[in-house]
Amino acid sequence: MTTSQPSPPDLHWRGGFTDRELDALHAAAFGGTHDPDRPATPWRARLERHSLGWVCARPAPGGPLLGFVNVLWDGGVHAFLLDTAVAPAARHAGLGTRLVAEAAGNARAAGCDWLHVDFEPHLRGYYLDACGFRPTDAGLLRL
Questions:
Q1: Is the separation of the CB atoms in 98 and 57 below 8 Å?
Q2: pLDDT tens digits for 48-89?
Q3: Three-class SS of residue 31?
Q4: Looking at the DSSP assignment, which residues form a beta bridge with residue 73?
């Protein structure tokens, strides 16, 4: 007897989401707290204004938001990843890598030549090995 594995989540470029569900995913992915009684972060408005696009992952249409990545850009050839987020229950199955690959493909299709990402040291292997980024020097200024 064989057991069937669940299908991998579907990825959607500029996929639909509610501000509340992205708040919840963001809190779960980055160790924050989600207070449904507080006003939702205006994610959709921000993304529409500043992003080239984003990728949403769901197990099926109308299913829970399991993953997300935002792709910002300079309007030219440079795109930037922010907020790569995978729900804790969906981690370690390749979803984050698929999100980044989908984001890269859509940035390339939009005419971008470069995709930038910054990350914490514990994510180095993920971005450099699993996702194919190469190391580069960069600077950061806290404002």
A1: yes
A2: 999 999 999 999 888 999 999 999 999 999 999 999 999 999
A3: coil
A4: 79
pTM given for the model: 0.91
Report helix angle 19-30 to 43-50, nearest 10.
90
Determine the pLDDT at residue 37: 85
Judging by DSSP bridges, how do beta strands 51-58 and 67-73 pair with one another?
Answer: antiparallel
Query: Phi-psi region for residue 75, left (φ > 0), alpha (ψ -120 to 50) or beta?
Result: left
Q: Cite the beta strand spans of the chain per DSSP E.
A: 10-13, 51-58, 67-73, 78-86, 114-116
Sheet holding 78-86, edge to edge: 10-13, 51-58, 67-73, 78-86, 114-116
Backbone dihedral region for residue 141 (phi beyond 0: left; psi -120 to 50: alpha; all else: beta): beta
Lowest mean pLDDT segment, chosen from 6-10, 43-47, 94-98, 107-111: 6-10
Q: Which residues pair with 12 in a beta bridge?
A: 56
Tell me the chain's radius of gyration from C-alpha atoms: 16
Residue recorded with tokens 């507080």? 38
